[in-house]
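hey so i finally got around to running the thing on that chain from the lab meeting. sorry it took forever, my laptop kept dying and i had to restart like 3 times. anyway pasting the input first so we r on the same page abt which one it is
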Amino acid sequence: MGARVSKRNREKRAARKRARQQRGPTPPRHEFGDRPHGPGCPCGEHDGPPPLPPAEQLARTLLAVARTGDPAEASACASELAGTHFSRDPQAVGAAASMILTRTLGFMWRGGWLPADLWEITRRRADAVVAGLLVDMIAADTTQHAPRTVHERWAAQVRQLDADVWWERDRPHLPQWAQRHRLTVERAVLATITLLAELVTLPRLPQILPPPGSATQRATAAAGVDQKVLSRVRALLAKAESTQFPEEAEALSAKAQELMNRHAFERALLDADEHRPQAATSTRLWLEAPYIEAKSQLVAAIGAANRCRSVFHPDLGFVALIGDPLDLDITELLATSLLVQATRAMVAEGSQTSRTGTSRTRSFRQSFLLAYATRIGERLQEAATTAAEPQADERLLPVLADRSRVVEETFQEMYDRTVAKSVSITNGAGWQAGRAAADRADLNIERTAVSA
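ok and heres what got predicted. didnt touch it at all, straight out
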């Protein structure tokens, strides 16, 4: 362990040294102190290539300090830039912050990240101030591009974040942002460095959507989805989340699953009639701590029942889903609702202790959620079968087979290397309670038809 700590310390010291070198020493000045030596200096001793523009120099400094990951170095840099540099050239400091954040966002987009993804990871790892700065930078980045070159799903995520350009575009954003949020310039610069430090450590992800500026058409995010069906499904799920009776909640969820599957099968038959080629895409569902591994099992079970593949990213906290766009809509709607219901049922079981008084709450809840996921998966598969029976048609099977093939090919293109992970149950009582919570409902569709 000591060797690893020592190595990290050496890496941090080297990064800090690079940051100081990036900033560079203060240029020597003439005796009367009016300006530094440089190209064309009367003394003739310091001619050379022209220096970088001040904003470019400061942008590189901000990035170099962010890469150190050292809070003390970040604070020192923020203090220096907000003091001497800002008093000399406030335009340069503000321009540098926007410049380097915009460049970094472009790098993240090319690395597979989407606006919603960056917001989700930032709000988990930083404070609301830093997350707010990110939203403004996403707005600034999006407005650089013609609307027709921004994919509709991308634009929808930007709208969901309420990312709008509220500041005067002819002046740097950072000072205006600091004033709006009643922050000092130093705090605003520190937020810039903190945001950069979070972004530069993120890994590359599979590309889902073309970055803004490179989309070739404004494809709709949910082509062919019957909004009346989705409205009815949302109403069912809202009732399921609000009721205090587990049996009613699970019956309403099963009804929603059946409605959406029936709609999916009808759409598949329409595809067959129109000889429409199948297509697959991906979305990411972010999970809230704790028990994200167990929650990922619930999402995977719901996805499997709706013909989607899933990959869990434990270090980041989301499940990637790959499937037909409509199947993804179904999975996301159900998963969002059932995660709420599962958490409520789990909390209702209360704290758990062993005979000796030792807390067993964590193992109980982990096992509860795993059992809930397993049983819900079984029930949703049953609901899918029920929905398919009225659609018995010789055209349906080839379409679904073709869709499954396209989903599998897309999955392999995005994730050429995955590891299947098994989960262990450490609390039998939690397993039984979780399975019972998912198994109490009478899923007779006739009973739920009135509620719909």
